[in-house]
Amino acid sequence: MTLTVATAQLASAGDVETDIEAAMGAVAQADGADLLVLPELFLGGYQLPPIVVSESDPRLEPLERACAAAGLVMLVGACLDGPEGFTISLLELGRGTRRIYDKQNPCHDEARYVVPGRHSVLIDVAGWSIGLGICYDGCFPEHARALALAGAEVYVASVAYFAGSAHRREVYYRARAVENGMYVVVSGLAGECAGQRFDGGSAVYDPEGRTLVEAAGGEGVVSVTLDRAAMKATRSAHSMLADLREPAPVERR
Q1: Alpha helices in the chain (DSSP H)
Q2: Which uninterrupted H or E stretch holds 138?
């Protein structure tokens, strides 16, 4: 069984309506995809304090219809309001707009404005198990590992990395792929927003951490078809996930 994924590398205008229009364009470019991933805090842009969006915002209705008509599931970053406070989150569109995941590890100044999410999340897309992450989540091996142990075949990372940090981003997500024997989909914010510059990094890595496709510079949408048989073969040959043991006690000598 295969899964076609598309990842967008886009600049946010810092305005929700304009960003929704850009997301509509990404849907058109992702023709044939089952899953389309957009960057962290794309709707309204990465800025602090963040612009808050509601999953019931009527401005999202045309985007929901476009995703449904294209037969794809979109994951797009936004700041949402919840019972415990604002969260950096992913919205799912294409089968009913809903809040689907809240970032568990707010980074640095983000923690002044948002609260951490309380749950890791798996979703099903076209019969594949997809684990969700947002930016700093992916810096912690335990986050992706917990999802892999729960059955994730693909780890999605919606990110916003500042210019100059590409070397760290690549290490993180290639490592999350190879150490768990799963595909990794990264969608990175590009361009400038609120006085900050972002360096994109949208790519899809195979279960050995090799690049399958990437958005090289500028804005755009790239897609690739994932093969479950290849993932299973990798996990059989490199069995770190199956061989995992509880850490041994640490002795100081």
Answers
A1: 16-29, 61-70, 141-149, 166-180, 228-237
A2: none
Name, in order, each residue with C-beta under 8 angstroms of 58's C-beta and a sequence gap of 6 or more: none
> For the purposes of burial, counting CB atoms within 10 Å of the CB of 167, is it exposed (0-12), middle (13-18) or buried (19 or more)?
exposed
Query: In this structure, are strands 183-193 and 2-11 parallel, antiparallel, or unpaired?
Result: parallel
Domain boundaries, the chain: 2-237
Token pair in block for residue 18: 């304009």
| Rounded to 5°, angle at Cα 225 from 2 and 105 | 95
Structure tokens at 25: 């364009």
Q: How many CB atoms lie within 10 A of CB 120?
A: 17
* CATH architecture for the domain at 2-237: 4-Layer Sandwich (3.60)
Distance of CA 85 to the CA centre of its chain: 22
- Contact between 192 and 11 (Cβ < 8 Å): yes
User: Do the Cβ atoms of 161 and 169 come closer than 8 Å?
Assistant: yes
pTM for the structure as a whole:
0.96
Which residue from 136, 187, 146 is spatially nearest to 5, judged by alpha carbons? 187
Residue 247 scores a pLDDT above 90: no
- Tell me the C-alpha distance between 61 and 163, whole Å: 33
> How far is CA 233 from each of CA 99, 227, 236, rounded to the nearest angstrom?
34, 10, 5
pLDDT digits (tens, 9 = 90+) for 146-160: 999 999 999 999 999
